[in-house]
Structure formats: structure tokens, C-alpha cells
Amino acid sequence: MNLRKNQAVETYFREVKRYKSILKSTVFFSVIVLLQACQNPPEQNTPREQEKEHPNITKLKGQSSEFTPEIIRLNKNVYVAVGYDGSNASMVIGKNGVVIIDALRALGAAEKVAEEFQKISDKPVKALIYTHGHLDHTGGTSAFTGNSNDVEIIARVGFKSELQENSPVESILKQRNARQFGRDLPSEDVINRGVAPGITPTDRVGEGYLAPNKTFQDSLYISLAGIDFELYAADGETNDELFVWIPDLETLFTGDNYYKSFPNLHAIRGSQYRDVKSWGESIQKMSTFPVKHLVPGHTRPVSGESFVHQNLKNYSTAILSVYQQTIDAMNKGYTLQQTVDSVKLADSLSTRPNLQEFYGSVAWGVRSVFLHYVGWFDGNPTNLYPLTGLQEAKNIIALAGGEQKVKKQLNTALNEGNYQWGLQLADYLLQTDYQKKEVIVIKIKLLRGLAAQEINAPARNYYLSYAYELEKNI
What we know:
Blueprint lengths: L1 H38 L15 H9 L6 E4 L4 E5 L6 E5 L4 E4 L5 H14 L4 E5 L11 H5 L6 E5 L13 H12 L32 E3 L2 E6 L2 E7 L8 E5 L4 E5 L20 H11 L6 E4 L5 E2 L1 H27 L4 H7 L4 H4 L11 H13 L14 H12 L2 H13 L3 H14 L3 H16 L5 H16 L2
Parallel strand pairs: 4-5, 5-6, 6-7, 11-12
Antiparallel strand pairs: 1-2, 2-3, 3-4, 8-9, 9-10, 10-11, 12-13
Helix pairs in contact: 5-15, 6-7, 7-8, 7-10, 8-10, 11-13, 12-13, 12-14, 13-14, 14-15
């Protein structure tokens, strides 16, 4: 390798000497490329791909430890299955049976967990509680209940009513869902999903689902398998969410209102409004219980009364802070983008391990709250009847001095790592079909450049998924 480097350098000096007057800069560039080629084989990477892994990617990789498959024993009565699928399933052992809380997504994965639970206790399943209606918590129920018709299956009134299969735009929601979770990405591009493993089982997804046979409105106090349970309605990630409190076991099951990441106040795949204020208040309510063991819907349990309380407190404070800052900015007459720019978590919150933006995003939450209260019009009259995308693109391109100059700036943005600006420039050129194939190739590199520094798993997956889709079509 050193010989090749020396040959490359000697070639450089010979060429400079011969063509110094007219080709100095060109040859210099060529030799630099040659030297790089000697060190690295050609790859399909962005020009500024970091030699060293971006710290955000390192952090995101570290989050994968939350999904190591394991049956976690919290006490002699409570066991939590983590990492077998995209979510958690739990078993509570009572005097004359067991109670299951959430049932995973894939029936195959649920069967494996049910088998592990049966090794711990062979008592019959008396009840199963759904914390909410998402498929990843409901798809494997029959693995736990077997053929019994006597199992109580408990959920809130309105269970599953807001899910994508009930939407008139189900087809686009499915596509966006696949992008958010990186379902079609090659395995080498997968890290994790922020609050779940990057790749989850696909063996009979959803085929074990059984509908609830007992529902409640606001709260339910019930004895199951000889243990007293308290169930509370708790709007948050879904509007059919509940949490489960078992006083004698000092254990609380949060569903998807809490996990070790800043909460996903808005899902970029598309969803109905998630009531951000109610979400924060639901967490506040949880923090009033003397919880010794906290079991999230995703990520590993949290134990220790003081530590649990601290985690719930900073979580609710963060959610309600985002909500209130957004409302305050709106009442000052800020536009949507001005509001997004103004809302920040305090340093005392943003540095908390359980509030890193592995899954949710402060900015996405702000946008969701803003649009919920005032809709698409942000108050700026400029945005009442904006130019079409094509009209705006033509004007911007003309202002910049033409398509060739915009293309030059696009390449500059790519080479300098200014990826977001590059994407916006690329979209202007794509509106006019200028050198469409070349611009798409650059856009793919820009998307991968952003993905290489993104801590948020849904955003990273979306960038990469979109890049692959573009690549397939050029």
C-alpha cells in the first residue's frame, strides 16, 4: 500500500511540473482522489461521510441494549419478556392463575414467550389486559390464552377505533409505516427502532389477536387470579391507552405512555392527534403512586421507588413543557416555523437518558400541537394562497441565476455536508425536471448523509427507506 501511495505522489509532482500553468488545480484534485482511492476501495457513500462514526449513531446503537431478549424477574410475582418482539409482554402470577399484560405482535414470537412463562408458572391464564390497541401489543393473544373461552380480555372503551386499518388513507399510512420502521431496509442498514429492535419477527403477524370481552370507561378495580388490579384510562400515545397499577406488588405498567426515549408525540407515519396535554397529565398521575417497579410498553423495566418517581417526573415535565411553550408561542402570534424554532427542552431535561430523541422529537410534537389547535393556516397571510411548488421552484431558480447555478449549489451543499439545504435545492430542480436522474442521485446521497448523523430512529429509517425507493426507480 505504501508503494502505491508513493507512486501516486510521484505522479502528482510530474503532472504539476508539466502542466502547472494551465492544469494546476485540476491535477491537484485528481491526485487527492487518487490518494484516497489507494487507501479506501470505492463505495457508494456521500462525499463527506465521516471517517469516524457520528456520536448520534453511537448513541442510537447503545440504545439496542434495551432490547436484548430476556425474561426479567421483578419479584416472585412479576416477569417481563423484553426483546422477543417489538414490544414487551408481562406475566403476573396470582394465587390461582396468571394475568398477561400485552401480547406482542407476531404469534410466533408470542408462542416463544408463552412457553418461557409456562416454565416459570404452569397456572392457567385467567385474564389478559391490553394497554392499548396497537398491533405490536395485541397480535399474539391466542398464544397465551390457548383454547380457553374463560379468559377475561380487558381493554378500554373505544379500543382500536383510531387505527390505520379504519382510515380512508390506509394505503399511504402503510407505506409510511414501513418507512418509519425501516421494514424494507437491508439488514446492514438497520440499527434499531428507538424503542424496539431494528428487525422484529414476522411469523404470523397479528394472527393471534382476540377482541376484548370486557371494557371500561374511566377506571376499573378488579380482582384477577386472586390479585387486586387497578386500571386507569390514560390518553397519550393512543386515545385508548390505559395503565395498570397493582398496589400489593408496587408495580405499574405504563403501556406506550412511557418508554426510555423522548415520547413520540406525533408519529411521522401519520396518526390522529395524540393529546399531548393529557399525555403529560397521565404521566403525572402515575407519579403519584408509590411505584417500586415500572414496566414500559417498550424498553426494559425501571426499579427503585425514588428512581422511578424521578423518571416519571422528568417525563411529564418535558411533555407539558413542550405543550405549554407551544401554546405560549402561538398566543404571541408566532408562525408554525417560528414556534418550532422557539420551543426547547431545558438542559436539565434534554440531558436525561430517558428523554433522548431516539423515537420521538420535540419539533414533531410542536408541529402536532400547533396544527391541532389552529389547523394548516399558521396566521401568516403569505401562506393563504402560496405559489404552487412548480411556480416557487421556477422563481427561486431564476433568482439564483438559473438551473445550472442551482445545480452547482446543490453539489456544494452535498460536498460540504449541508444536507438539509441540499434536499431543498434538489426538490426545486426536481420540480422542473432539470437533469432529473443526476439530481435524484444527489438526493439519495443527501438522504444517506442525513441518516448517517441522525439519532432519531424513525427519521433515520425514513431517510434510508426513501433513498432506497428512489434508487429503485432511476
